[in-house]
């Protein structure tokens, strides 16, 4: 390990810094992370439909080398009935050789200045738990844990994988009748409201109409219009997303975005990335049809486990529960999923007044950042 220089300076990103940023990111998270290629860097930095991203960096003064960074990503959020420009802060990362210095403190304070200067109404992030505990005294954000929902699809393969016997016993106990044929039968869903399932390769104008009808289901939601969805689910870092929509005539009642991966402990896993349903009975019926379609797709892809994120107060959570997904106890979860946030605009509720039941979050919000 090299000696840690004491001359560090917080600064803004300059063209050419991306080489250091990508190298640090790959060192920390490995080659399967979403932010390891120049293409992925451009996607997040320059192509975001909500606006230009700001990157705060920490430099080693003598060399000018970037030894730490954090992203401030503009996002359009529906906040208590208003569309507001907000900030998602992400990837607070310092080179291991500098973690015992004041680099974290300097970088966080610089980012706080940036947030004030840019005038964001709201800021949120999805912190790594160890870093959240280390830095929470500097930022004083409110936070909630996000439930992880899982549905085992192949218990035999899971038993043969790298799980301990104790882990499998806990999994079976948590799932109740999880090993019975009931959860593995093809779900029969009687079509209602004239709904049918479409396989789509792009987001069309109907997604804007769906968002207009769904935007006030919950008080805090990332604006899921056509422009955002097309950007969010671009094929970055080798990730392939599959869109399924429930429609009647030329109108969407809901959609689901799916992804398969073996990046989670080497287990072939199907992810329910995003599930959004219109309000009302037709939306719930669309949800049942979409989750049945997700089950068929995951079976075709031969995944062993399926999962997603959702808060219990949402209709989307209840639809997943009826499809066989169960909330995972913290002792079984692969990691802690947390959202932390601040309100800056006095026209919005005070940070401490915001409740878990105000939020709508899916894996799509969490995964890319």
What does this 3D model show about the protein?
With 369 residues, the chain is α+β, with helices and mostly antiparallel strands. The chain has helices at 18-29, 38-46, 103-118, 129-139, 155-160, 165-175, 206-214, 226-232, 281-300, 315-322, 363-367; strands spanning 8-12, 54-60, 65-79, 82-94, 122-125, 142-145, 148-152, 196-200, 220-222, 242-248, 251-264, 267-277, 305-309, 326-327, 338-343. It has two domains: 8-140, Aminopeptidase (3-Layer(aba) Sandwich), CATH 3.40.630.30; 148-339 and 354-367, Gcn5-related N-acetyltransferase (GNAT) (Aminopeptidase, 3-Layer(aba) Sandwich). It is built from eleven helices and 15 strands. Strands 1, 2, 3, 4, 5, 6, 9 and 15 form an eight-stranded mixed beta sheet that branches. Strands 8-10-11-12-13-7-14 form a seven-stranded mixed beta sheet, with helices on both faces. Helix 3 links the parallel strand 4 (82-94) and strand 5. The longest helix has 20 residues, at 281-300. The chain is globular.
Q: What are the main properties of this structure?
A:
single chain, alpha+beta, Aminopeptidase, 15 strands, globular, about 375 residues
Mean pLDDT: 88
Structural class: alpha+beta
Task: Bin the helical content.
Answer: 25-40%
CATH topology of the largest domain: Aminopeptidase
**For this structure, what is the CATH homologous superfamily of the largest domain?**
Gcn5-related N-acetyltransferase (GNAT)
Biggest sheet architecture: 8 strands, mixed
**Order of helices and strands, N to C?**
EHHEEEHEHEEHHEHEHEEEHEHEEH
Distance between the termini: 29 Å
Number of helices: 11
Number of strands: 15
Q: Beta-strand level of the residues, as a percent range?
A: 25-35%
